[in-house]
């Protein structure tokens, strides 16, 4: 007699413990939980559960947290309560942090059998290579969540596969082979995989690559229309097991609870205050400047950013998190000079709410992939200032392929944690010029804004019923059901 088909799925989502990695996975959890016959558990630690629970404690289908105890201070050398990369007191502890996160494997496996219903699939951040061993051990399919675009995946693949970097000097320009567009870069603009920093070990990256190679597929926080040719190429490489289901940040509204401000952290300013300030500005006149959740830009360099914002003459919202810069702001008279047109947010900003406000006309971003997507969804032209990781690739996509951004002119990666080594590379004048170009009301500016608006509309349509991301989500779930029923993994 044929056995009953498996329809109920239990997804175990395991994010890396950093906001840029956890936030999209939390949104994915919400999205999956809304699908019929799907249960979702997010694996995290107590401090992170506390931080992100408000996003999930909403009406609608529930997502459970599996809270694994974070290893003790004596075992990790990390301060008590430091369970997320953005709370690291110093980048010198980055490797301790990575090792501590690896220790979660045994904690997870200790309680695996108690999970109910039993998990049917693991969706894991790509940097958690050990989840591939856990998936093998429990005979489950593992899906990689990379958190970056297909453009980046294809660049990575082609750089590994070709010999183009052999013998190249760091500052020598080359063309990334085999891409739909002619993308020119230097090695010093590439992510750590090709341009090592002192804080990443090749061995760790290699493990992540090896783990990805034995995974069932890859889920991408992007939407097909944004980078169609790159999606097509990447699907060919991966035998079709690539699902673009984003932009995930748009699912904050899935419960109609309008919680755009909820990003796992309380800001130094309430969302209401921020909106009130923006309500008083002209439509499309304000520049929003934020360099992400973990960047530690050299204070002297940040001061150039402040001076550039001031010199642009536009109203601005500037998110700052560096004590030295805060001192400069007070002592140099900057705050007084810009008090009528500058809103300074110390710490954490309600970014998605700000970007959705009609007064915002441009987004100065460090080009983290979540920020790029959030800018795209809001129909924003962008001023791009990549800092580290894959951010120069994201800049290429925005400025060159999409035509919705202007670069400030950063020339090379400033590796995370090595900011002191790098002096001032971008001057206030460069910042000002890029802002003026983006905010310009001439033909180029209008054209750029038009493209950005159009992309924003397409992004929003992609997640609607019948849209490309919606269809991809259904397809991914169906393909997992299919392999469960074929008993490929023995589940
Ligand atoms: N973010 C925010 N407020 C801030 C800084 C960051 O809400 O003040 C959010 C932002 O909306 C994005 C994430 O944090 O969702 C940052 O991710 P991204 O990939 O852009 O950059 P990362 O911080 O990982 O470098």
From TrEMBL:
Source taxon at top rank: Eukaryota
Family indicated by similarity: Belongs to the UDP-glycosyltransferase family.
Gene3D superfamilies, sorted: Glycogen Phosphorylase B
UniProt-recorded name of the protein: Glycosyltransferase
Keyword Transferase assigned: yes
Pfam families: UDPGT
GO MF term set: UDP-glucosyltransferase activity
Species assigned in the record: Centaurea solstitialis
UniProt xrefs under PANTHER family: GLYCOSYLTRANSFERASE
Keyword Transferase: yes
UniProt-listed Enzyme Commission number(s): 2.4.1.-
CDD domains found in the cross-reference section: GT1_Gtf-like
